[in-house]
Amino acid sequence: MLETVTPMKTAEAREAVLESARKNGESARKNETEKRGRKASKEVRQLQLIEATIDSLAKRGYSETTMADVADGAGLSRGIVNFHFESKEKLLVATLAYMADEYAAHWRAALTRAGDDPARQLRALVAADFDRSICNKRKLAAWCAFWGEAKSRPTYQALCGARDAAYQKIFIDLCAALKESGDYAYEPQVMALALSAMLEGLWLRLMMGTEDVTRESALQAANEFLSAAFPKHYPWASGPKKA
Amino acid sequence: MLETVTPMKTAEAREAVLESARKNGESARKNETEKRGRKASKEVRQLQLIEATIDSLAKRGYSETTMADVADGAGLSRGIVNFHFESKEKLLVATLAYMADEYAAHWRAALTRAGDDPARQLRALVAADFDRSICNKRKLAAWCAFWGEAKSRPTYQALCGARDAAYQKIFIDLCAALKESGDYAYEPQVMALALSAMLEGLWLRLMMGTEDVTRESALQAANEFLSAAFPKHYPWASGPKKA
DNA sequence: CTATTCTGAATGAATGTTCAACAAATGATG
DNA sequence: CATCATTTGTTGAACATTCATTCAGAATAG
Prior knowledge:
Organism (chains A, B): Mesorhizobium sanjuanii
Protein name (chains A, B): Transcriptional regulator BetI
Keywords (chains A, B): DNA-binding, Repressor, Transcription, Transcription regulation
Structural class of chain A: mainly alpha
InterPro entries (chains A, B): BetI_C, DNA-bd_HTH_TetR-type_CS, Homeodomain-like_sf, HTH-type_TetR-like_transc_reg, HTH_TetR, Tet_transcr_reg_TetR-rel_C_sf
Oligomer: homodimer
CATH superfamily of one domain in chain A: Tetracycline Repressor, domain 2
Order of helices and strands of chain A: HHHHHHHHHHH
Radius of gyration of chain A: 20 Å
GO molecular function, one term (chains A, B): transcription cis-regulatory region binding
């Protein structure tokens, strides 16, 4: 089941932010060895504000998310956001970029971990989409908030599309590889579209929270798709119904 | 290809509105034979404002849609919306309800037209999702705008879910029927979820307009899904690759 | 003439942004 | 080490703008 949408309480949020910021700070420190303390602090604040933004997007939605919400959510004063980010627009773009980076890093890691076998890689990619770390109500709600505005904002559209640029190519390549080894009839590009669209659609369903769709049942549906599309690579758990 | 997102020009909009309103007016007149002229006029205005709302949602997105936009788009004065609809919130709910009704009527008609064969019915439902009348950039953008706000608004959530309540049940029943006659291995409920999620995901992709996804290629992907999941009912156009 | 529909300016609330003052950390100097 | 200067980070009130809503009166239909 998805965890509750209730935003992380202040203490938890702080910890998560600091945790995340620490890693980030380290990598940044390697690149530029200067102003270390200050620089780190600045990044911590920005991440803190970005996390608060995600909270607000999840709780109130895009149109009701205000600068005051974000500042309050982070436990800081009203003018702070315009100091670290120039404007509300830039805060939101930074938030979306943060989520896109996180998402891309996540599936790339899963892909690497899966080794060289296309069938294992594809299964890993699909499973990665439903990991708790990125597939929770908070993040899904934030994603959907951006999707809703993407059509009328080229900047959002480009960042949401970060998911597709390389991602979609990987899917096509994997579908092509499986077709080769399994002698399937589909067109790789078309099957890849169907597959990735289903993943996004399942996210949407999870986000809506209607019906009784859970992370588990969504993953089950995705795997059933794999079994149907690539039966030789993903045999059915139980044989066909006989009576 | 999807038509341009440019909202219908005033003349076209008027015609479409009046056309649509005429039918609606007739059915309403059957129910309650009273205040005919006035009632009809009132409904025309409301539809006109709803159409203008969809235009604005598609062009500016949810968060940037203002009462002034809607009034201007309809070619009427500023205070008119609060006269016909009590508030902005109620206008938006009415708009969503209008789209949900239209969508439901559309797939029900397609289902009826398909006859009694489950395989034909399922194909008809899938194809109906990509009909020009409901699957165009304008409507898709409006749908997505509501999705983006649905999580934080129970009213929207319920109306978006109108799609799922009965719709999902039909899908499950059809998947069960095909499983019976085709001796497939999947679980009907799970396969129905995968299928309907893919349809929504394709809508999302179409709305985003990224890549080169068109109504045609989206429908092709959906049909390829059908062939993969129900090979005995939807044989591949061309046989498996042999070399 | 009466009821209904419509207009457009006025109003008030919400909210993004600015900014002057303040606090804290860093660096320089003796 | 102590002290001051400077840069950086933060605050909260003030400001300007946008926008939904209201409403008194005009226009129109019955």
